[in-house]
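If you are new to this repository, start here. Below is one unmodified record pulled from the training split, so you can see the exact layout before writing a loader.
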Amino acid sequence: MTEQDIKEIKALLATTKHIVIVPHKNPDGDAMGSTLGLCHYLIKNNHQATVVVPNDYPDFLKWLPGHEDVIIYESDKSNVENLIEKADIIFTLDFNAFHRAGDMELPLANSKAIKIMIDHHQQPDHYAKYMYSDVGMSSTCEMVYHFISKLGDVDAIDGAMATCLYAGILTDTGSFRFPSSTSTTHLVAAYLIDKGANHSEIYNAIYDTNSYERLQLLGVALNNLRVLPEYKTAYITLSQEELNAGNFRKGDTEGFVNYGLSIKGVIFAAIFIEHKQEGIIKISLRSEGDFSVNEFSRENFEGGGHTNAAGGKSDLSLNDTVEKFISILPRYKHTLNP
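And here is the target side for that same chain:
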């Protein structure tokens, strides 16, 4: 984002605007933290701003300041489409292609509003008039902090904004353990703590509030864990039957894939989760080092993301998807075993 872009955006935001802020489908901590953090900032600056999400998000994020005002497209389509139609500006956060907004793709693409993208994923589509795209950033939440700083208004960050942004940084950095957590990331986190983010309460709200059913489901997932040592790879499967038996709720499998990656000698981990209602297998991929799960997912499973964290999907059955995954691995043996 150039200095000229910032100058023009500041001019845009100098008068009250109708603004819609959108994350990707199946929003995670970074998506919800960044959209809500930015929304608080815009409202504080006298804009009529609303966060609209393509579909529902996990309960462990429904304590974030402002979450009660989020509008969910899948349950209130006419209201969301009306907001999009009236919008002067649409911010798209934590995604960089309209199809990542699910059923909201067409309303967003047809909107005449000025689009502003803030995102850290690879290979962005060029739909936005103003693009703040940086794949080296730890999270979109960190980027929202820098965006506000570029506007010369970082002192406006208050406790609600700080809490939302810290929560997203925490989740997208794996509690600051991923390589994308730079010294600047830690300085931003420190600033947010000084501004009112209670780091221990945020961590507990996200990670230490488990239901009995979620822990039971984790037990099933770990029982299904398999290791392919010749490819330094581990994978987990969860069928729809297993999800139903565990009273699955959105967000219950968050972080499960990391258990595979925690095994000594494993640098590539996957989880395959059956979603019969959507007719797909949802895939989450993680890696360590230089093995790019972004490229792996784009080449094989209609997905993408970051070098070490990506997602994808399959229209095959759960068993056929796993068989396809295993059959592909020999093509990557040289990069999995450098």
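Two things worth knowing about this chain: The chain has two domains: 3-207, 212-336. The domain at 212-336 is CATH 3.10.310.30 (Diaminopimelate Epimerase; Chain A, domain 1).
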